[in-house]
Amino acid sequence: MEKYSRRRKASQSWVLMVLWTLVFSAVGLAQDLVGVYLTWKSDPATTMTVNWVDLFEGSSDQLWYRRKGTTEWLTAEAVQTKAGVSTLQVRRVELTGLAPDTVYEFGIGKAPAKETDGWKFRTMPTELSRPVRFVSGGDMMHNREMVDAMNLRAGALDPDFAMLGGDLAYANGVAATRWVDWLQSWMKNSVGKDRRIIPFVIGIGNHEVKGGYNGKIPDDAPFFYSLFATPEGKSNYALDFGKYMSVIALDSGHTQQIAGPQAEWLAAALAKRTAQQFLFAFYHYPAYGTTKAPKGGLPYDAKQSIAIREHWLPHFEKYGATALFENDHHNYKRSHRLRNHQRDDENGLLFLGDGAWGVKPREVPSPEVGWWLAKAEPRNHLFHVELRADGTATIEAVDVKGEVFDRVELTRPRTRPVTPPGR
Fold first, then answer.
1. pLDDT per residue over 176-199, tens digit each?
2. How wide is the angle at C-alpha 317 spanned by C-alphas 409 and 308, nearest 5°?
3. What is the full DSSP assignment across 351-371?
4. I want to staple 325 with a disulfide (CB 3.0 to 4.6 A). Which of 180, 282, 308, 312 is the partner?
5. pTM to 2 decimals?
6. Percent composition of the chain: helix, strand, coil (DSSP 3-state, to 5)
7. Comparing C-alpha atoms, which of 183, 215, 178 is closest to residue 200?
């Protein structure tokens, strides 16, 4: 009943918002903006993709922006589409030729008259001349209160960007009203110092897709593919931050198969990035999870987990990685270092998860059963990562109250490449 009550309240909220917007529009006071968010399709040091969602086809397509500290405003025209099959209007413009590690001011429809009328963004540095920090997590919104609280926590940390690993609005490919809540929450709460909106890199999960798995692109995940412009327009992609970091996004069977072309792409992407100092991957369903065990088995006996270990992990073992971020299981997890499906404290991969940003946590295996787990508990959290030029890094687990309840200190940026047996 609680589930249906939440849906009814969301529907009522959506209707009220539309009615009020129409009323204010009639007297010339319309503010139809639903959400503003920032993504990247290419170089994070010199580009920024500004996205916004509003209600009316006739709303402004114009973006005003300028480098902070300058006086002249520049303008750019956004491309307009619709969000899925809804009437929500998506507007998107990719700004290029920007200065690295620089703050820009921007406004939508007109130049902001004062700072509180607009927002800011900051491009990424080309080198690790300063520490770079990001937050990561997934499974974001069982309800608005939970996602608001953790988005506020992310904003308070003032990271350079966020890595979001799927199950975002829990819209299941159909519920536009849930995307309204998700977009509003991010715009209002995931804001750093001085109204700086935190950019994100995005991944797909089962709750973005009609049926959860084996969906067709874009029909079965219409909101994901219309709201988020990724490199090459795919759910698997690589994003390079200078020569100091690469981020690999993967699709754990939701609109692309784990095996086959995606695994082949992963091998090629990793082979091209052996010189990158840090390398992170993120995806939704975990190779080494904490719940959802099939009958008579353990969480890692799920078919998706087996497929990831067979088709993806040999490539990460071969080329090396800093850490792999997993989601879906609604708990906190830090694995032991693992290689060839056994503990390897020297050369093993580090798995972090399990997707509990704004959802009700589940149970975790007992220590005597969960041999692959260094730490696990049912706790809402995000990961806060700091990278430094000397190749060291700190990864902290932060709960909704701001408590750091787990920490990993990395003394080298990537695992040592080791060719798996038989390859």
1. 999 999 999 999 999 999 999 999
2. 105
3. EEE---SSS-------TTT-T
4. 282
5. 0.91
6. 25, 25, 50
7. 183
